[in-house]
Structures are given as C-alpha cells and as structure tokens.
Write a structure and sequence with these properties.
The structure holds two protein chains of two kinds. Chain A has helices spanning about 1-10, 15-30, 30-35, 65-105, 105-120, 125-135, 140-165, 170-175, 180-190, 195-215, 230-235, 245-275. Chain A is mainly alpha-helical. Chain A has one domain: MetI-like (MetI-like fold, Orthogonal Bundle). The two termini of chain A are about 15 Å apart. Chain B is an alpha/beta fold. Chain B folds into two domains: about 5-90 and about 170-325, 3-Layer(aba) Sandwich (Rossmann fold), CATH 3.40.50.300; about 105-170, no CATH class. Chain B has an eight-stranded mixed β-sheet, with helices on both faces. In chain B, strands 2-1-4-5 form a four-stranded antiparallel β-sheet. In chain B, helix 4 (about 110-120) packs parallel to helix 7 and helix 5 (about 125-135) packs across helix 7. Classes of the chains: A mainly alpha, B alpha/beta. Chains A and B meet through helix 8 and helix 9 of A and helix 2, helix 4 and helix 7 of B.
C-alpha cells in the first residue's frame, strides 16, 4: 500500500520542469512591464546595434530598441498564439470527433475524406494559403489554424470514442435510458479525452513555432509588434554583425516550446499510470 | 400469477456479409409478477442477445420482429422517447463484467444520481437520500463515504452491488441480469445471488436471469427456459425440468454438471460444439449432437408442444428422452 501511495505522489520530472517553464512564461506574458527594463518600442538612436552589456543584457537592435524588453513583451503575443491557435481546434475537434466516433457509418466515411484532404497538404502550406486569402494578421492566423487544426483533434477523439462506445458502460448507459448526447459527452468523452489533451500540449509548442514562422514571413503578427518571429526577421540582415537581435528570440522560442513538450510528456505519463 | 412481460415470436437478425444471421429465432415466453426466469444455454446459444432484444439494446444493423408486450405496449414498436422512459425506469439491466459496466471516471454516487435524474422528479436533496438508501439496500457499508468514491476503489463484488444499486435506483419492475455472477468469486457469487433474491422479494420485481450455470438456476430461479441455436427448446418450472427433462439437450446439460453427495459416476458430455449462426443444421438444430436423433429430426424443425402443465418442449423424441429419465436424481 505504501508503495502505491508513494508512486502516485511522485510527479514525473518532465512535468516539473515543463510546469516551471510554463508558469514563468505565463507570468512574463501577463505582466511583461514588471520585468522588462525598457519600453519595447522606444527607439534610442544613441544606442544602435549595441552588443549585450550591463545596460542592455541582450543588446539593442538597429533602432536602438532593447532586445531583452522586446523578448519579454513578445511573451504576451506568443503565449496568446499558443493558447488561441489551439483552444478552438481542440474544442471543435473534440465535439466533432466525439459525434463522428459515436455515430460511425456515413459520418465516419465523410470525416475520413476530410482527413484525407487535409493531410494531403503540409500543414504550414495550407495555413499560409488560407492566411494569404484572408490577409495577414493574428486574427486571420487563428482562423486559418482553426480551419485546419480541428481535424487532428477530431481524429484522435473519434478513434478513442469508437473504442469506448463498445464497452459495457456505454451499453449500460443505453440500458439506463440515457440520451445519446448524454452518453457521448458525459460518459464516453471523459474516458476518451486523455490523448487529445496530451496532443494539445504538443500542439501549443507547434503553434508557437507556427506563429513565429508566420510572423517571420510577415503573415502573422505585424511589425513593430514585439513577437519572436518578427524579431528574428528584423535581425536577419544583421546576423553577421549583430547576432543577438535574432538569437535571443530564437532561444525564447526553444525554451517555451520545450516547456510545452515536457509538460505534454509529463502529463502523458501521469495519465497513463493512472489508468 | 399476473403476467408482466409477454414475448411472442421474437426474432433478431444481424445483417452479415453472407446474408442475415438469425441470432434469436421465434422465441416466445411470458414472465409473471415477482417471477425469476432463468435463460440457460451454452455460449453462442443466443441467450444474451434475447435479453438485449427485449429492450432493443442492439447494434443498428440488427433487425427485430415479433412482439415484446410490456404493460400492454409493444416495446419493439415504441418511440425512442417512450423506450428511454422504459429503459432504466421500468426495466433495468445489469451486466456480466461490473468492472467495465461502470463508468471509470465518474463517482458511484454520481452514477446513481444520473439514473434518478433521468427517471424521477426528486429534488437534489431527495436524490442524495435515495442514493444512500440504495447503497444500504444493496449492502454497501459506509454509504455516505463510498458514494463519492470511484469504481476502481470498489472490489469486484462491491462493484456488482453498486451496479445493482444504479439499476434499481428508479424502482424498475423488471431486472434483466446478464450473467451477473460469472465474473465473481464463488463466495461473492453466492452473496450477489442472495441479494438479487432478497431484492426481488423486497421490491416485488420480476427478474430474467441469463446464465450458463445450472447451479445458479437451481438456487435462484422459479422457471427456466433452455436455449439452443437461437431457439427455446424447453421451458418449465425449475423443479419439473430438473426432475424430468424432456429435451435431449436439456438432459445432456443437466448430466454434465458434477454434484456432491452422490455416488461418483462419469459425467455425461455433449459431443461437438454448438453450430455457428451461419451454418445452423436443417431440421432440429441439435440433431448432429443428439443421441436420440431419428430421421424426422434431420428433416423438420420440431414444434413446441405442451407435454405437462407449464412444461413445453420442442423435440420429436421427447417420449424417448422421458423414458431414459433425469440424470439428476
């Protein structure tokens, strides 16, 4: 018994590291002004392209803006991208996936074709195509990601619901006279949602990458906004002389992505052992 | 005895790749108030499908015909809305595997509450009181604490008790039990059987009990129906059938159960295996395995005959079977 208790109490290490990184990222995202030493958009023509030093820990860019302050303020936008670009696909995909998995038959065939259509194109290409139709900007990026992204969640949930609906408790629910909607969302979904939640964490890391890529390409957040992808693009012409403009935002992307991935792995471990 | 359930010519087919498979074939029986009917047969004889057919708990590719008359109404023709009210409210079902029949992520109390919300107009407070009552009724101690626990915190026997509590929440008049003791230890089996018997008396409900265990039938049921290849081959009171089986298959089943307290004798066995649904033999489905089979058995399906009061059998050679006597003496 004591073995079981201590095993349950042990939080997997990836979850601890990932959780700490994410918590720090969230605090920076919500209160950037508390931590940023300078105004992220203030030009300082007296200090252009300064290398990292005591006054500017990460140096300054070609307008004299403090890179550290811009990296910190970018947390607000990039964490927002991580959440908004994934939460709607997660919700929509979960509902559609649960219905498709439960109904099966025709709904499943139709959904299969949609999945085929979506996975034929690389994700980034599809999103770029939609954004270029809608026009650049964060809102349109969320829409583009939402239009494509729900399919992956729906596929995970549908497969899981299909397994769950054959178990006795689903039959027991029907034998108890419960409605189909009640059986799907109250009984099957909570048992089917774990893999989708784990995928969600990984997806947030991917969303940050995607958001930065689109920012870099000029299709996501628009300059002069402080956003990591935009910053990297800003610095690309100075790579040889002022590497710090691009490298520090790049490191921020890596660190935050790592935070989400570790949290995802840790969660997967916790939820797996619970079963 | 007042009849509560009347099943007439119930047939259930499943659409298969090579034509329809008939899992339940022309089954008729009736059930009295407070009566426990045992549905007996080997695996694959159609007893579970028969039970599920009564409340249409079948995959969508299944087709049903016949009548299931419940309180004057045919369940097979009911609207989905009426069917939902009958299921769980008037007719409840418990399953073989309590571990999988309970939802693992919801506390037991919530699962009881859910049934009460679906079928009664009780207030939140009344439902809580009722849930505690039910836990007491099925013999789960420390009801208040255990209501907030999850299925994995219950032992096998306790899970089956919890399942029964959920099934009985809205005071059903009929309990369908699909091998409810098969997955349990023998001692726990006995407790659950006693519980079902007590509840039948206390709540004045009827029970249909599917099992392959003749010991369970002898201990609990009033009447029994023996199924083979989707048909009922013999029906009668448990005492009559055990004393005088009239179908060769029933006789074989009874003879294959070891008993204590009698002289040691070789167990009878029924050679072969039950036919698959896609290849049911011509004539009487049992004839390839039957010691009494004659020419007519290979040619025509026997009608169901009433040979004694309340004792029906579908066998051409029942007189020969009767003459050989019961293997249970």
């Amino acid at each position: 018994m004591s073995v079981a208790v201590s095993r349950r109490a042990a939080i997997p290490r990836p979850l601890i590291f990932g959780g700490v990184i994410l918590a720090a990222s969230l605090i920076l995202a919500i209160f950037p002004a508390l931590f940023a030493p300078y105004d992220p958009n203030a030009f300082d023509y007296a200090a252009l392209l300064q290398a990292p030093s005591g006054t500017h820990l990460m140096g300054t860019d070609n307008f004299g803006r403090d890179v550290l302050s811009r990296v910190i303020h970018a947390y607000t936008i990039d964490m927002q991208i991580a959440i908004f670009a994934t939460v709607f696909p997660f919700l929509i995909g979960t509902v559609i996936g649960a219905l498709v998995g439960y109904i099966g038959g025709f709904a499943e065939t139709l959904f299969g074709r949609v999945v085929d259509a979506v996975i034929t194109f690389p994700f980034l290409v599809l999103v770029i195509a939609i954004v270029s139709i809608l026009g650049p900007g964060l809102m349109n990026m969320y829409i583009a990601v939402g239009v494509v992204g729900w399919v992956f969640y729906a596929r995970i949930i549908a497969a899981e619901v299909k397994v769950q609906k054959r178990l006795d408790y689903a039959d027991a629910g029907r034998a108890m006279g419960y409605t189909h909607l009640r059986i799907i969302f109250r009984h099957l979904l909570p048992n089917a949602i774990t893999p989708a939640v784990v995928y969600w964490m990984t997806d947030m890391a991917l969303a940050i990458l995607l958001g930065s890529s689109l920012g870099y390409l000029g299709l996501g957040a628009q300059p002069p906004a402080a956003e990591w992808g935009v910053q990297i693009a800003d610095g690309k012409n100075f790579m040889a002389t002022a590497w710090w403009i691009s490298v520090f935002p790049g490191l921020a992307i890596v660190l935050t992505g790592l935070g989400f991935s570790l949290t995802g792995d840790g969660l997967a471990e916790v939820l797996r052992t619970k079963k | 005895m007042k009849t509560v359930l009347d099943v007439r010519n119930l047939t259930t087919r499943f659409a298969g790749p090579s034509g329809a498979l008939v899992a339940v074939n022309d089954v008729s029986f009736s059930l009295g108030e407070r009566e426990i009917l045992g549905l007996v047969g080997e695996s694959g004889s159609g007893k579970s499908v028969t039970l599920r057919s009564l409340i249409r708990l079948l995959p969508s590719m299944a087709g049903q015909s016949g009548e299931v008359i419940w309180q004057g109404r045919d369940i097979l023709n009911m609207s989905p809305k009426d069917l939902k009210a009958v299921r769980g409210g008037q007719i409840s079902m418990i399953f073989q595997e309590p571990t999988t029949a309970l939802n693992p992520v919801l506390p037991i109390g919530l699962q009881i509450d859910e049934n009460l919300r679906a079928h009664t107009k009780l207030t939140h407070r009344e439902r809580l009181i009722r849930a505690r009552e039910l836990m007491d009724l099925v013999g789960i101690p420390e009801a208040a604490r255990r209501l907030s626990e999850y299925p994995h915190q219950f032992s096998g026997g306790m899970k089956q008790r919890a399942m029964i509590a959920i099934a009985l929440a809205s005071n059903p008049r009929l309990l369908l039990a699909d091998e409810p003791t098969t997955a349990l230890d023998v001692t726990i089996q006995d407790q659950i059987l006693k519980l079902i018997l007590d509840l039948r008396d206390e709540l004045a409900m009827s029970v249909i009990f599917v099992t392959h265990d003749l010991g369970v039938v002898a201990a609990t049921c009033d009447r029994m129906a023996v199924m083979y290849a989707g048909r009922i081959v013999e029906t009668g009171t448990v005492a009559d059938v055990f004393a005088q089986p009239m179908h060769a298959y029933t006789r074989g089943l009874l003879g294959s159960v070891p008993r204590v307290g009698t002289e040691r004798s070789p167990l009878m066995s029924i050679e072969g295996t039950p036919p698959s649904l896609s290849a049911i033999p011509q004539g009487c489905a049992f004839h390839p395995r039957c010691d009494f089979a004659t020419e007519i058995c290979r040619a025509t399906q026997p009608d169901t005959k009433m040979l004694a009061a309340e004792h029906q059998v579908a066998c051409h050679n029942s007189l020969a079977v009767v003459k050989t006597g019961s293997p249970v003496r």
